[in-house]
Amino acid sequence: MSGDLAIRLRGVVKRYGPITAVDGLDLDVPEGTCVGLLGPNGAGKSTTMRLLTAQAIADEGELEVLGFRLPEESKAARAQCGVVPQLDNLDTTLTVEQNLLVFTYLYRIGRKERRQAIERALTMANLVDRRKDRADKLSGGMRRRLLIARALVHRPRLVLLDEPTVGLDPQVRQELWALIDALRAEGTTILMSTHYIEEAQRLADTVLIMSHGSAVAAGPPAQLVADHAGREAVEVYGPPPRLAEAEAAARAAGLLTRRTGTSVSVLGIEAADGRAPEGERRPANLEDVFVLLTGEEID
């Protein structure tokens, strides 16, 4: 494996019949970092996760995880990975503690270390007081925390999070962000797929924007914004004729624009030499970049 890369993908392709779910994907995840796969549903994020756990086998390309080549050495790679699936697959007939105990056996944690491993996972996920509760009695946020705790019980080197906060309300999402931050602070490598722009910008050291199975841009969030959308934007509000007029004037001045419902965002106005339209000024952001590069709206 190339030095200090937890994940290395080169030219990876995955097809399902006539559909190409992943199309020539390159991806580097340095050890000890959090990398976010950002894209709408159908962008190829979950397929990429399945390739990394050998639940799917690539049709073309090279895949390495923690120094192991996939799919040939997938069993050895999985032993050092923690996986948090998009869909909840907890055993609802078991308690929180029993769900974790099952995975200590699956990950072959020694008898003497099992109790300590469970306590650490419960503490990190803030579930110590719910250890005796059955999984089906937990709230949605607690179930997601248990899924993460289960993935951490064997102290993995790499954690794969597939849409970790999908379907959760903003308050619960913030709780899970704090848990992911704690993992980062410990030096755990994280690959996280998400379709929430705020989540990618908040948590990831590097973001890979995907669309239709391909990578369209990669880099630190702030760098992506600077490179593609500039530093400042102006938001123009008004009826459709006013928005069309603002778009035409901005484009005539060589400025990029994007529609945002009832407004037009004019980007990179710091280089406009006074030619930007009147409107509400704001910093450019990762959502601007996403829409510019993919043409798709995102939650």
Give short descriptive properties of this protein.
299 residues, 28% strand, Rossmann fold, four-stranded antiparallel beta sheet, six-stranded mixed beta sheet, 10 helices, alpha/beta, single chain, 35% helix, globular
The Cα radius of gyration reads: 22 Å
End-to-end span in angstroms?
Answer: 36 Å
> What proportion strand?
25-35%
CATH top level of the largest domain is Alpha Beta
Strand order of the largest sheet: 6-7-8-3-9-10
The name CATH uses for the topology of the largest domain is Rossmann fold
Query: How helix-rich are the residues, as a percent range?
Result: 25-40%
Shape: globular
**Series of H and E elements:** EEEHEEHEHHHEHEHEEHEHEEEH
Tally of alpha and pi helices: 10
Helix and strand content put the structural class at alpha/beta
CATH-level-4 superfamily name of the largest domain: P-loop containing nucleotide triphosphate hydrolases
Average per-residue pLDDT, rounded, comes to 93
Number of domain modules: 3
